[in-house]
Amino acid sequence: MDNETTRFGHVGGPRMWAIAILAVTLVGAGVLRFGGQQAAGPGAPAAAPAAISAEKAALAALAPGDRPDGCIQPDRRIQLYAVELPKEGTQIRLGYGLTPETASYPGPLIEMIEGECLAITLHNQVPEATLAALRQDPNLPLGVSLHTHGVKYTPTSDGTIHTDSWVPPGGQRTYIWFAKPRNPSTGAQGTAGYWWYHDHMVGTSHGTRGLSSGLFGGLVVRRQGDVRPDRTYVTVFGDLQSINLRRGAATDTCDPVNPVPGPTCLIAKKGERVEFLVVGMGNDMHTFHLHGHSWADTRTGMLDGTNKALVDSVPVIDNKTLGPGDSFGVQVVAGDSVGAGNWMLHCHMQFHSDQGMATMLHVLNPDGTLAPHSADHAPVSAAGAPAAHAGHQGSGT
Ligand SMILES: [Cu+2]
Questions:
Q1: Could you tell me which of 130, 131, 65, 120 has the C-alpha nearest to residue 97?
Q2: Which pLDDT score, from 0 to 100, does residue 135 have?
Q3: Do 121 and 55 reside in the same domain of the chain?
Q4: Are 235 and 209 in the same domain?
Q5: Which residues does residue 198 pair with via DSSP β-bridges, in sequence order?
Q6: How far is the CA of 251 from the centre of ligand 1 (A)?
Q7: How many whole angstroms from 199 Cα to the centroid of ligand 1?
Q8: Residue ranges of region Disordered (predicted)?
C-alpha cells in the first residue's frame, strides 16, 4: 500500500488509471517476466524503503528549474546503477542496471507513457581506476552520466560535463525526464517514440568510451492506445560490426533446448508481437534487416485501418537505414504466415554482415525448442568479443 502511494501518489485521475492498466498489461503480456530484457516500465518492482528515503532526499534537493514544463512532480522513480562488468578478453565492460547485480549491456529497457514524468537516480559504482583507464582526455574529471534522447529535460538532467550534470565515483544524481504528450487539438508533437539513453562522460566529453564499453540502453515512450508488444528486444548496431557489442556467434547464445530470452538470444513464440528497438551507435552506417518479416514505415511499424489513401502512402519495408545516433522501433508478428524457424537479423552492408554483424530471431517450435540450425555466423575472436579491426577507429575497443 505504501509502495502504491509512493509510486502513484502524484498522479491523478485518468492518468493514474492509465498507468495502473499499463502495469497490469505489462505483467499480463509477460513483458516483465519474459521480455527481451529486464524492463523498467510503470509496473517495475518498487524500491526498498531505504532507497525510497534516499530518493526523496535527492528529489527534495531539486529546484523547480530542474523540471521541464508540464512535469510538476515525478510520477515514478527508479534507481539506476553504473557498474563495471567482467572483462571480455581485454575489453573493459560497463553496464547500467536497475540493481548493481543485474547490470548489463544494453542496460534495462526503460518504458514511459506520454504524460509521465520520471525521476532516475543514477549511482556511479564504477571504480575510479577503471574510469581513469578509459579516459582519453586527461583534463576530463572522472565520472559517468545519463544522457537521453527524445524526451524533455532541463540542462541539469543533460548528463554532460558543460552542464555539470554527471556523477563522480561513489556519488549519485537524480535526472528528470518528461514524456511530453502530443496535443491533439493543436497538433503539437509529443515524445512517443523509440529512443536510447547513454553515458556522456567516460573517456571523452562525449562519452565515447562509455558507449563502446556498454553504458547504453533503450527507451520507449508509448502513446495512450498504442498496441503493446509481447516482448521487446533492443538491438544496438555499433562499430566493429557489432550488435549489442558482440558479433558473429557471440550475438546468439540461445540454448537450443531451453532458450532464455535476452540481448544475445532473440526468441519468440509464433504469433507473438515482437518489438525491436534499434539503435545506431558509433561511427558507421548500418541497415536493420530481418528475414521473413516486414513492417510499415511508421512510428511503430504498424499501420491498421481501411483508409486506402493513408495505407498506400506508407511503404512496407524489411530493411531500414540507421545512422550514428539514430533510433527507431518496429513491431512484427513472429512467424506470421512463415511459421517457426530461424530468421536472420543482420546489417545489410555486406562487409558488415560478412564480418559478423548478424544474429537470429528464433521463432520457436510449439514445444518451446529452437528449429535445428547451424551456428553459421561469421568468426569471432577466441573470447567471443568483437575482434579488433584495423579499419576502424574512434570507439577504442
Ligand atoms: Cu552495418
A1: 120
A2: 97
A3: yes
A4: no
A5: 147, 216
A6: 14
A7: 22
A8: 372-397
Handedness of CA 250, 237, 142, 149 (dihedral sign): negative
Residue 250 lies in a domain: yes
Q: Which three cell numbers stand for residue 142?
A: 572522472
SS3 content of the chain, % helix, strand, coil (to 5): 20, 30, 50
pLDDT tens per residue across span 299-314? 999 998 889 999 999 9
- Mean pLDDT is lowest, of 18-22, 113-117, 154-158, for 18-22
Q: How far does residue 34's CA lie from ligand 1's centre (Å)?
A: 28
Joined together, the cell numbers standing for residue 187 give 497538433
148 and 256 both lie in a single domain: no
On whether both 237 and 130 belong to a single domain, the answer is no
What is the whole-number distance in angstroms between the Cα of residue 19 and the centre of ligand 1? 37
**What's 356's domain CATH number?**
2.60.40.420
Collapse the DSSP code of 221 into the 3-class scheme (helix H, G, I; strand E, B; otherwise coil) and give the result. Answer: strand
> Could you give the percent of the chain with pLDDT greater than 70?
78
Q: Which of the pair, 381 or 343, is modelled with greater confidence?
A: 343
Tell me whether residue 377 is in a domain: no
Assess if residue 395 is contained within a domain: no
C-alpha cell recorded at residue 202: 567516460
CA distance 397 to 394: 8
338 CA from centroid of ligand 1 (Å):
26
- Is there a contact between 279 and 237 (Cβ–Cβ < 8 Å)? yes
Q: What is the number of domains present in the chain? A: 2
Tell which residue, 104, 93, 110, 280, has the closest CA to residue 202: 93
Q: Which residues surround ligand 1, an ion (CB under 5 A)?
A: 286, 347, 349, 352
Kindly state whether residues 71 and 45 are assigned to the same domain.
Answer: yes
> What pLDDT, on a 0 to 100 scale, did the predictor assign at position 9?
30
CA 304/CA 342 separation, integer angstroms: 27
Query: Cα separation of 283 and 260, whole Å?
Result: 31
pLDDT > 90 fraction of the chain, expressed in percent and rounded: 71
**If you measure from the C-alpha of residue 133 to the centroid of ligand 1, how many angstroms do you get, rounded to a whole number?**
28
From residue 101, give the alpha-carbon distance in Å to each of 246, 268, 346. Answer: 21, 26, 30
Q: What is the pLDDT of residue 56?
A: 61
Rg (CA), the chain: 21
**389 Cα to the center of ligand 1, angstroms:** 14
The whole domain housing 54 covers 2-214
CA 354–ligand 1 middle distance (angstroms): 10
- Residue 60 is predicted with a pLDDT of 58
